[in-house]
Each structure stands twice: as structure tokens, then as C-alpha cells.
Amino acid sequence: MEYNIGTKENPMELKTPPLSSDFTMHIEEKEGKEILVCTVGKTILHYNTNCINDLHEMLKTHGDWMELGSADEQKPAKEGTVEAWGRAETNPIAGWYGMKKGLRGRFGMYVPPLMEKLGLAELTHEPKNNKMKAI
Length: 135
Known about the structure:
Elements: E1 12-15, E2 22-30, E3 33-40, E4 43-48, H1 50-62, E5 66-67, H2 82-85, H3 107-117, E6 121-123, E7 131-134
Antiparallel strand pairs: 1-2, 2-3, 3-4, 5-7, 6-7
């Protein structure tokens, strides 16, 4: 499914789930494949574009709220969270949706707001322990 996520010149502007930080997302081509590019200040993360549809399908199957559980790549993800699913051997790509070694984590922080903006998910916006569910 195609989504209008923006370009490098005109990226989609988003806020983290607690609404405390701004970041952008856009689609870019790298090595012949489209990737999601997330820019947080000077930090640039890359995510597999399949994560949008795959996460939406998983959340629809889950059928209820799921904790985001965002964590850096070097830290373990809390079991049963969106972050844990985004790096699990059992997800549709059998591993990490994050593509930049050392910066593959934080899936649960940056992909859910994109899903909300695209109208695919609902998010809570608490200071901590946010959740999401499919629409």
C-alpha cells in the first residue's frame, strides 16, 4: 500500500508519543529499495517500509492496546511490546525493522506516531508507557 509520507525536501513532521520531541519521516531510495528515513535532531534512523503494513496487520490481529516499549538497540525490549515485535524473529521479516546498525532500536518511539498520522492506529500520549492499537 502506498502512503504519502513525504520527501527529503518536504518530510512529514511528527511528535514522539509523549508529545515531547519533534522529528520527521520521509521515504528515500537506498540501494534500489524504498526506506523510511527518520530524522531526530542530528540522528538519522532507517526503517524497512514494510513495517507500516506489517505492524498494522499485527495490531489488528492483536485486537487491543499494546504497550510501545521503546528501547535503544543495545537494550533488551520488554516482552509483548511493539518494540519487541519490531525486532523479533517471529515478525514477517524475521528480525529488525530498523536498518542502521547501532541505531536499529526505538521502533516503538518513531513508527507509532507515523501510523497515527496515516490514520492506521490510535496512540496514547502520556509522559511514559504509551500504547497503541489499530484503527
